Amino acid sequence: MKGIRRLAQELDISIGTVSRALNGKPDVNEQTRQRVLEAAAAMGYMPNQAGRSLRQGSTKAIGFMMESGADAAGNGDNFFLGVFDGVQAVFSRHHLDLVVLPCSTEEDPTQYLQRMVARGMIDALIISATHRRDERIELLSAARLPFIALGRSATPGNHPWIDLDFEGVANRAVDRLVSKGHRRIGVGLPSNDINLGFVFLDGYKAALQRHGIPFDPSLVIRAKSTDRGGYQIAHELLALPERPTAVVLIYELMAIGLYRRLNEAGLRPGRDIAVVGFRESPQSRFLSPTLTCFRMSLRDLGIALGESLLASMPAYADIYPQGLVRRIWPLELVPGESDDFEIGAAASFQSR
Question: For residue 84, what are the CA distances in angstroms to 88, 194, 279?
């Protein structure tokens, strides 16, 4: 308290105002906050964060749990870096810190999260890679720790979430391919029970039904969300007695492996088979022919996640009066050359 008292005397303001400014309270105007922070830096004052957290029952830290194993890391690095930037832009307004919690895919995510919650490291949490049945949702709800999910789940719970429009992607991809005459359309999905795969498959089936195309389970290939997974998808589709004339992928890195396997077979996307990828990424921009895929702002998604989480926390609900947020995040179609192949040329692909 001596440091705070000295700061208050130097600035001729109350100890309470200094304390609230140092703690990032929203009821302190920005000019006063800057005066306090600058004076504290000039005096070399460093508050005892551990002690302050114990007194306040707050860590001023928000966790972001993500999977970090071989199946997730390569596909997720670019995605999560963009999302982190937006999330931290929101948290920095309130002097909150973003703490990344990387859970290896070799470890049970619920047990990992139990340890983090028991240690009291964070005030709230963002979870990602939500599964069809996600025990983390039940754990966090029971612990009454504020959280938001990046992705929906079939697990019931009164919590906020934001999910990408996987149904919309499936519908637009199938519509685009059907308009070019395709009826045998393969799809590459994740091999685990992550919920986005189920949501995408439901959208794919609904789109086929709208066009009067029977669903063929042999055209659904599950693989890891990596370039190797894309290679496997292409290999299995090429081995079918009646090959598809088009394929839709759910992860961006899958396109790299799929292109490679098709090239080995002497086939070219856009000429021998139509390919629609998922998200535009730095890697996909170097593919030739250019990949038809979907685009979104990762930073804007991160901002929405941060604000929606704070809206569920009593200390920030007045600043972010959105209430309980449950939102489908749109993606924009980016036409490329990879699906230029029309069904009139299908004979060359089917005969190889």
Answer: 6, 21, 17
* Phi (first) and psi of residue 245, to 5 degrees: -100, -5
- Residue 98 near residue 91, CB atoms below 8 Å: yes
Tabulate helix, strand, coil % of the chain (nearest 5). 45, 15, 35
Same domain, 271 and 176: yes
Q: Which of 46 and 283 is assigned the larger pLDDT? A: 283
Verify that 176 and 221 share a domain, yes or no.
Answer: yes
Q: What is the DSSP letter of 155?
A: S
194-245 confidence digits (pLDDT tens): 999 999 999 999 999 999 999 999 999 999 989 999 999 999 999 999 999 9
CA dist., res. 123 & res. 134, Å (int): 21
DSSP 215: P
Rounded to the nearest 10 degrees, the angle between the axes of helix 166-179 and helix 195-210 is 40
- The pLDDT value given to residue 74: 40
CB 28 within 8 A of CB 20: yes
CA proximity to 60, closest of 99, 32, 31 = 99
pLDDT of residue 348: 40
Q: What is the CATH number of the domain that holds 222?
A: 3.40.50.2300
Q: How far apart are the first and last CA of the chain?
A: 79
